[in-house]
Specification:
The structure is a homodimer. By secondary structure, chain A is α+β, with helices and mostly antiparallel strands. The first copy, chain A, has 10 helices and 8 strands. The longest helix of chain A has 27 residues. Chain A is elongated, with a radius of gyration of 19 Å. The structure holds a DNA duplex.
DNA sequence: TTATAACTATGTTTTACAGCACAAAAATAA
DNA sequence: TTATTTTTGTGCTGTAAAACATAGTTATAA
């Protein structure tokens, strides 16, 4: 078991944006109820239909929020990086989860009971405003995504995904290699296409010297080109 | 009892969910800054790229929130009915509108300056909670929509749209006729398909006795069937 | 080590849907 | 009224992408 002081220091240092908004008494209670959990690669964090009870904060690793659709096909809705919050929306809407979450790579998740979070939101305006901004940002992204996924062609969708991955998880020291190693299947589920087509289109991009691929390592060589494809492809 | 202005009575009666959350002083200032505007059928209410300055509330009529995508194609993101609020999200995200809004039929819109709304959100917890719930609901719908639009086939998407129209705008006295008369093009933009395919698929549904069509009047005859198509089609 | 499963790669076939053309009907304007 | 534009309806064609098949390749387990 993790020491209480450690938990509090994580709240203070990692989740400072959230923590800083709390009053002293709130901080005490939040720290008491804060829990940390580890998830292995591919482990499910929560599933569709479950009751949303925790506000989660990704402290380490990478997480995908996804939705299973028609015929076993899965759609990745959004990607979470440290330090981002997730798992709370359905609670606000008083409904079970309509999405699921899983670790793309081994992940550390901090969590707080939603009823407690709601209680403090209702009396702490800074906290309320924090969630209004979070939700507003996510909603804007979701709306934009709907159009991108439905109207762009395969090349455009994959190009966009690669750029999103770069923006979201950044690159390694070389400034080119994406700092995330995703299975082709996940890349496909992110881009709304079949795995075969993700593989095929990656090959095309490689042939056109837009990217290089080494297993799951992807380097973006010609970002400008990728942006053009994303916009018009 | 003091006689209220027309504007104030609209706030009190039509926008009661919002109004009831305000303190007396807030009510006074809100009433002072409340404006009403009329829009003709097909008139644009706001456009992508504009600065979001008003919280809008649809008092009468029907409004579509849409986004122009690749090659002049348009995607309807959500539909607004009285009394629903819209136009505020982008302001919270401190960005220009990423969507546009237009009247499907002649509409009356009440509006309030966003800076004022923000000011009150920051000191009125009930108001903050109101927007947290609104945003949460919209985000859940948007995420579900992404999957529906990308994974379902044409028949499934149109079936779903018809059901959404029924849930959203209801039916006339006969219990069957959708209470909204949309152009085929709008129906197509709502369902992510071409106008031709919307027309064709409507014809198919008619032949299969699932609906009847008379111009823009649509009656849902076999809702059960429509649900099945929406789910598995 | 070998065996087994999971992932990646690529070629072939099928099909759902967009794109286009054109006509009829309805709405709107002159 | 007639003229003109907009909307609706159908048939035809082409193609993007799914579905399928099969094989090589890399992990994981026994």
């Amino acid at each position: 078991m993790v020491k209480k002081s450690t938990l509090e220091s994580i709240l203070q240092e990692e989740m400072s944006d959230f923590w800083a908004l709390l009053e002293n008494e709130e901080k005490r209670v939040i720290a008491e109820n804060f829990k940390i959990q580890n998830f292995k690669k591919n482990e499910i964090i929560y599933s569709e239909g479950e009751e949303p009870l925790q506000l989660m904060c990704l402290l380490k690793g990478k997480v995908k929020i996804y939705k299973d659709g028609v015929g076993g096909r899965s759609q990745i809705i959004r990607l979470i990086r440290p330090v981002q919050y997730f798992g709370y929306r359905a609670y606000f809407s008083r409904e079970p989860y309509v999405t699921a979450a899983a670790a793309i790579e081994s992940a550390t998740v901090g969590s707080l009971p939603m009823p407690l979070v709601e209680k403090y939101i209702r009396k702490n305006n800074g906290l309320a405003w924090f969630f209004i901004k979070e939700l507003s940002n996510d909603l804007g992204i979701s709306d934009a995504r709907t159009v991108n996924l439905t109207q762009k062609h395969i090349r455009g969708r994959l190009a966009e995904s690669l750029l999103v991955l770069k923006e979201n998880y950044g690159v390694e020291e070389d400034g080119l290699t994406l700092n995330i190693y995703m299975a082709r299947e996940d890349l496909a589920n992110l881009s709304n296409m079949t795995t075969s087509n993700a593989i095929r289109t990656l090959s095309s991009f490689t042939n056109e010297k837009i990217i290089t691929v080494d297993g799951r390592r992807i380097q973006i060589i010609d970002e400008e080109r990728l942006r053009k494809i994303s916009k018009f492809g």
